[in-house]
Every structure is written in C-alpha cells, then in structure tokens.
Design a protein that fits this description.
Number of strands: 16
Cofactor: Zn(2+)
CATH superfamily of one domain: HUPs
EC number: 6.1.1.16
CATH topology of one domain: Rossmann fold
CATH architecture of one domain: 3-Layer(aba) Sandwich
Largest sheet: 5 strands, parallel
Pfam families: tRNA-synt_1e
Keywords: Aminoacyl-tRNA synthetase, ATP-binding, Ligase, Metal-binding, Nucleotide-binding, Protein biosynthesis, Zinc
Radius of gyration: 33 Å
Shape: elongated
Number of helices: 16
Strand content: 15-25%
Function: Mitochondrial cysteine-specific aminoacyl-tRNA synthetase that catalyzes the ATP-dependent ligation of cysteine to tRNA(Cys).
Low-confidence stretches: 1-39, 216-220, 473-477, 547-569
Helix content: 40-55%
Length: 569
C-alpha cells in the first residue's frame, strides 16, 4: 500500500524524502519541478463591463483592467473577523482600506458594490478562549461580534449588504461538502474527517501562491497528502458540534467562505478581498474548493490583498498571537476616525504600513491643513477674510487639473497617496492667494474658492473623511480646552492691564487702610467692556467664566487663570 501511494506521489511530480525526527518517521514532499504550471493556471479575463479602473490582481501579480460580469454592479466578498477577542488596529487598517476602495468605486466610478462579509463564530480559537473564560463559545462570539460592529461604525466603515455567520449556515456547508465529494475532489476518513483532495485538481492548486520547494509533511494525520485541508472536522469532547452524513463535527476553516459566497453570488465572483496573510492557505483553499464545487475554470476574477500594519521599527505584523496590538477602542481615545483614515490614505492599500506616533502626527497635520483651508476659504467667501485680488483664472485651471489627476490616480489601482498629493497641491495654491490684507482693492473671487471648497469636501467625503463632522470636534475636546484656556488667559491679561492704571490705591484718612475701589482711566473702560462682551458671548457657546469681583463702573469679573474656573459643554 505504501509503495503504491509513493508511486502515485512520484507520478504527480513530487519527490519523497524520509527522515527521522524525535524518533518519528516523517515523510516530506518536495517538488521535482516547478509544480506551478502557468498553462493550467492562466487567468481568464472576464467578459462584461469595463469599469475603466485597473487594479492589482493577486492571481496574475500585476494590474489588470477591472471588468465586471454585470454592468455597473460589483459582487464583492470579504473575510470578516474571527470573533474571539477585541479587534485591533491591524484589522481596522484592512477594513478601512477596503472601505475606501468600495467608496471610490461607488462615488467616483458609479459602481453598485454588493458586499458580503462572513463572521467566523466557530473556530479553534473561539473554543479555546471560551474554555479559558468558562463561557459558552456562542456567548463569546456574539459579544465580540457586536464589539467589532461598534468599532467599524466608530471608524465609519460602511456595513456590508449583509453579515453572515458561519453557525447560521451549517446545512449549506454540509451540502457544499457533499457535492465536492460527489465531484470526486474530497474524501472521508475512518475518523470522521473530510479532506479536500488537492491531487484531484492537479497543478491547478496554487493559483495565488507558487508552491514550489517543500510543501508540507506527512505525519500521523489521516489525510492522504500534506497539502490536503479539512472541510469537516470530527467532533471532540466538550466542543460544539452538528450532525452530518460523516458523523458529528464542525466545519473546517476555509469551507465557510466558499459556501457563503456561493450561496449569495453563485458560481462567479467579481472581487474577493482580505489581508495579505490570508492569501495562503485560506484564499488558495477557497479557490480550490469553490472551483471543485462549481466545476468551473475560474471562480473569483480578482483577489485584492491589503498590506500588513507594523509597529514602527518592527518587521512583525500587528497580531493578537504576538500580543503587539492596539485595540480600536484604545486607539480612538487618542486619535479620531478622520485622522486614521488620513493615515491609511497616505500609503497604497496593498503596501505595508508603519504605525507610530510620528506617522499619526503626519496624518493629523495633513488633516489640519485641509481643515484650515476649508475654514479660510469659507471665511473669504463670507467676507470675514480680506485679501488682495486673486488670480482667479489660475485657480480655475488648477482645480480642473486636480480633478482630472485625481480621477486618473484613483483609476490606477486606487492610488490614494497620489490623490492626497494632488489635493494638497491645490490647497497650497489656494492658500498662496488667501493672504490677509488690511486694504483691499479690486473685485473678490468668491466663486472659485467656493468651487475649490466644495471639491475638497467632496473628495474627502468619498474617502469617508467628514470635514463637517461635529463629533470630531467634540472628540478633540482636549485641544479645544487648551484653546479656550489660552483665550481666557489673554482676557485676564487685558483686564489686568486695563485695571493697573494707578500705581497705588488711595488710603482711607481715618483708618489708613487702602480703599478697595479701583477707578480705571476713561480710555481703558472700553477694554473692560470688551472683556465683559467676550465673557457674555462665550456663555451661549458653553464656555462660562465665573465672576469674582465688581469694578466701579464696570460689571465685569476677572477669572484668575490658576483657578481654572471654566467648563466646556
């Protein structure tokens, strides 16, 4: 039997190497030639609607025209979280990046994106964590699922058309596996496990990843080939399980995505996305079992992968298993959703990205520059900012050129860094002509600044950056408090100057004590009245300056800075 099995492996183009490790005989498979036959794995360009966008396709390792099966409709499936712990910033980076891509397709290229995301709510990690915490796997999964959805909402990630849980689709998964077995691409073992038979599809296994060299080990497992992977796992004591034709058990990891994507979109999928770490084995195995089920040459047309998030100075990705992660909740205590989106926009979605205070400060500074321009442009339009006559024609040309270059950049694999550069260049030229002047001659050019303002807000809105979001202002209350404190301190100094007009207060001739009344000189009274007006005007805005004393002729009270008697609503 062993000789027959070894002959079969040799015929498949693999060499066999035997070795002894810790007293156990192990057999390794090595490639006797490059098992990646490009002829058998050639990507088939879809027929249909050309979006005008080129995107990097992991199936071909190059940019390809994005062609959809249906006109202006993109079917999009993404791997969601395994809900056994808090979502961290590495997860957020991938979800925000793909959210930006979907927004670009929808808003810029007028594509209706139909997005489905799976929630993995049964898994080895979930079971292990539930045992550690002494709660049911279902309760643990639901708890972290809801937390994940709240985190995504806080980051302004648009929800998919539907979230689909693995445990809600067990009958569909069982039926999917039965058909793969019936098509001759899976086998059942004596232990009640079901494995996908990778040899049954020949050299078509490895569409995403070149599997040359050492590809695995044959140990004591009950599978035929080290590359084979579980479709159904026989149940173990104290684990959740479901009935199946092969006995009680639960789904393997990869089968859930193929089943759920196929249940919604059928035998053809436009776009599949996920982190680069999912390319192998997860997405590779999805492709194999989906094409085995549908008996088709190409199931998913485009595979898009986002780069890892690294802590600055580390080569390792942010990961729960490495315990080097920052939770989304903790992150949002220091930064805003807008700032995180700018952070993501400053790099290509498929590039690795370094997270640090410096990189976040760069994002914050970029956002601040954009916000300041919007404020100044609006002030200019309202007549609050007086400037010398502008070169209006040049600004109109810049705006038109920016709109063209932005669309071109986004059509080139969603190049957001180049897009941000174009926007910042437009803002720079706008700021150059928004220089305050005391004396203004000539006609104002409000219309062009209105057009620039609208476009900047619009393109930032496409990216999910809301420049008008009042919650962001509230979230930045620490900065606001510092500004208000400086304002109150300045007011206090002005009042002190206005009141210090007499070097020495007059004394009472009978007691010899100083008279507490202070009479400011007439030319200083307007300053004190302006201080009163400032206090009164701030009150409706939620800033309250408490009174301490009354000045003769002036109903104003001074706030001592050290008392910090101010509060913001």
């Amino acid at each position: 039997m062993t000789l027959k099995r070894n002959r079969s492996l040799l015929n498949s183009g693999l060499r066999i190497r035997h070795s002894i490790h810790n007293g156990v005989l192990k057999t390794s498979l090595l490639s006797s030639h490059n098992i990646c036959s490009r002829a058998e794995r050639k990507w088939i360009k879809p027929a249909g609607f050309d979006t005008g966008v080129k995107t990097y396709n992991s199936l071909t390792k190059q940019k390809e025209p994005l062609v959809l099966a249906q006109e202006r409709i993109a079917t999009w499936y993404s791997c969601g979280p395994t809900v056994y712990d808090h979502a961290h910033l590495g997860h957020a980076c991938s979800y925000v990046r793909f959210d930006i891509l979907q927004r670009i397709l929808s808003r810029i290229f007028e594509i209706n994106v139909i997005h489905v995301m799976v929630i993995t709510d049964i898994d080895d990690k979930i079971i292990q964590r539930s045992l550690e915490q002494n709660i049911s796997p279902t309760v643990l999964a639901r708890m972290h699922e809801e937390e994940f959805k709240r985190d995504m909402q806080a980051l302004r990630v648009l929800p998919p058309a539907v979230y689909m849980r693995v445990t809600d689709n067990i009958p569909q998964i069982v039926a999917f596996i039965k058909r793969i077995i019936g098509n001759g691409h899976a086998y059942v073992t004596s232990q009640g496990n079901v494995y996908f038979d990778t040899q049954s599809i020949g050299n078509r296994y490895g569409k995403l990843v070149n599997l040359g060299g050492i590809v695995g080990e044959l140990g004591a497992q009950d599978k035929r080939d080290p590359r084979d992977f579980a479709l159904w796992k026989a149940s173990k004591p104290h684990e959740p399980h479901w009935e199946s034709p092969w006995g009680q058990g639960r789904p393997g990891w990869h089968i859930e995505c193929s089943t759920i994507a196929s249940s919604v979109f059928g035998s053809q999928l436009d776009i599949h996305s996920g982190g680069i770490d999912l390319a192998f084995p997860h997405h590779e195995n999805e492709i194999a079992q989906s094409e085995a089920y549908h008996q088709c040459e190409q199931w998913g047309n485009y595979f898009l992968h986002s780069g890892h998030l690294h802590l600055k100075g580390s080569v390792e990705k942010m990961s729960k298993s490495l315990k080097n992660y920052v939770t989304i909740k903790d992150f949002l205590k220091s930064y805003t959703a807008n700032e995180f989106r700018l952070f993501c926009l400053l790099t290509r979605y498929r590039s690795a990205i370094d997270y640090s205070d410096a990189s976040m400060n760069e994002a914050r500074s970029t956002l601040s520059t954009i916000s300041a321009f919007c404020h100044n442009a609006q002030a200019y339009m309202q007549g609050h900012l007086q400037c010398q006559p502008t070169e209006e024609g040049i600004l109109w040309e810049r705006l038109s050129a920016t709109q063209s270059s932005v669309r071109k950049a986004l059509a080139d694999d969603f190049d957001t860094p180049k897009t941000v550069d174009a926007i910042m260049s437009l803002i720079h030229h706008g700021n150059c002509q928004l220089q305050p002047a005391t004396k203004v001659d000539g006609q104002r050019s409000a219309a062009v600044f209105g057009a620039m303002l609208s476009y900047v807000r619009e393109i930032m809105g496409v990216f999910g950056v809301d420049l008008l979001d009042r919650k962001e202002v509230h979230d930045s209350s620490g900065v606001l408090n510092n500004v208000v404190e400086e304002l109150v301190h300045f007011r206090s100094k002005v009042r002190k100057f206005a009141l210090s007009v007499e070097d020495q207060a007059p004394q009472d001739p009978h007691t010899g004590s100083e008279i507490q009344k202070r009479h400011p000189e007439p030319d200083r009274v307007p300053l004190l009245k302006d201080c009163d007006a400032l206090r009164n005007n701030l009150a409706p805005l939620g800033v309250h300056i408490k009174c301490q004393s009354t000045i003769v002729g002036v109903t104003c009270a001074e706030l001592r800075h050290s008392d910090r008697n101010l509060r913001t609503a």
